[in-house]
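As practice, study what follows.
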Amino acid sequence: MTLFYLPTCPHCHKVITWIEGHGITDKFNYVDVSASDEAATELEQVSGQDSVPCLQLGDGTCLVGDTPIIEWLEKTYQ
């Protein structure tokens, strides 16, 4: 799974904190969309928008926003 995030985004930090708190960081590829134009372009290609946090699941589905992502994580990892 890939988590697209911005280092300055409080919603992104909420998701990252949840992931770290549950010890599952190794299940994610983290992409800082501010790090390069390629990263921002990849986010737009996979999700059709430029909003973060965005979690791309293994099947290509994208969840956008801290609430939908954390709800999915809670269902999947608890």
Q: What stands out?
A: The first helix runs from residue 10 to 21.
